[in-house]
Specification:
alpha/beta; 25 helices; 15 strands; 568 residues; 13% strand; 7-stranded mixed β-sheet; globular
Length: 568
Amino acid sequence: MRKLYQWIDSLWQWIAERVFVRFEFNLPVSELRKLAEAGRLSFALTSGGFVEWLILSSWCRKEGFGAILIANRRRILLFAKPLYFFQICFKRKSYAELFLSEEHGPRLLICPFHERKQPFDPTPAESLLSGIYNGLQGRGFFLVPIFVLWRKHVRGAAKKLSEHFLGLGSSPNLIGKIWYLARQRKDSAVRSLTPITMEAKENSEGTEIEETEAMRAAKNARRRILVQVNQEMRVVLGPRYLSPHSVKENLLKDPDILKAISDVAQTSGQDRKRVMMLAYKNLTEIVANYQYRTIEFMYLFLSWLFTRVFKGVNVNEKELQNVREVMKTKPVVFICAHRSHFDYLVIPYVLFMQDMVTPHIAAGLNMAFWPMSTFMRSGGAFFIRRSFRGDGLYTVCLRKYIEYLLKNRYNIKYFIEGTRSRTGKMLAPAYGLLKMVMEPCRNKVIEDIALVPVSICYEELPEQGAYSKELLGAQKDKENARALFRSRKVIKTNFGKVYVRFADPISVKDTYQLAGGAAPTLTLQKTAFQICKSINDVSPITARAIVSTVFLAHPMASLPLQKVHSIG
């Protein structure tokens, strides 16, 4: 029987090595090895079956863990361990006994989201975990939730014709999995989440553990698996998206917008329907039209563009992992310093590369020119007027749209200065958008919001020639299609590296709690300057900046080229 199992394992391994080359595995081998030595290691999936078993079993063999020993699906046992299959069918052994066996190899637990048939009856996964808990003796049992991403898509979007046959991109059916594997697109990932330890309660009297306690531990373990996978799905795919039309219709029913419409109609003497049409027009000007296919195309285009324009994008992985953990539990607002038009593209590129959902980006209305407006709006940009002081209706529409994004856990990115700095130094912070971001938390509409200061540093700015002319008195060139076409020469120049750094997140809830009874305006101003300081603190010092500082500190106003070479 052992030779038969070895032959079956080698056959599946031969198939897996040729089929699953497209998957990127993000599993900590050393940590998993320690868990396997300390007790029994079991992977936990919330969806999938036979194909996912092949994927994980192939990786386990490759990393020296051995083939997956047992899974709680008869179909898998039939093709992997026929003896176990017959033992389960004829009830000679239970799944719990097989999971607790002393044989070497990881286990696989499949516990779908929707497997509970009756409200209070335990699910099959809970019954299995309860049996495992009852049978634990000394050694621990470690559950490692696994998130398998086949392909990204926009959650909540209308199904395409292909998705009716292949299933959703993140959870395809068997035909869809075969189709994705045949195409060999290398955009699928397998990621492990925080391990869950199941340990038996010490019982000095030697009596059996109460069934309620075992079932309580089983339900807790299953719930933690589902929560972790759901949080990771939110980080990768984001929340469910609605069409721009649905968003505008929902916002027009908001009491604050309806009150603003009535006030404007009463003050100006206009018909209420005409004012409502004006509010709808304002929302049409603002609301983004997030499309994943645009994000995917933009990533492919930027991968080509950044290799030509820059020498690479340098990111601190530890800082990015910290942001990832925050995104699991609360909406995140990325607040950046503004140096270049490339700032709009760098953060989405970095996040997409790390399998994190890209944010909605606040852009000036000056960027809404054809053809960029349609492309940017479908990439998550929402456009804001430079100034809307005195336009109460527009202010309410923008404030409620930002509140809608944060309430529904959409991430946002905007620039704290409001415009690009021409000198390289940070400008004074603009308070308007930050106030709109923080107000929902102060008004108890949202429990908490994470503000993440972000520094984007370039070794050499692509717009430095234009900035020099503007500082000498030239007029700023207006953004339009002609200027975009003229900027094609940027592709022929390399501007060095781009450095992206993420500061520690700032909790808006904690900020208001620490402020106590301080005036909201004072709290807003302190938070804005704290963000600016955090951006400066994490900004790296480039070689160009050091050389420039040396020259500026030299007592002579100008130096001949030979002197410059001697200083260097």
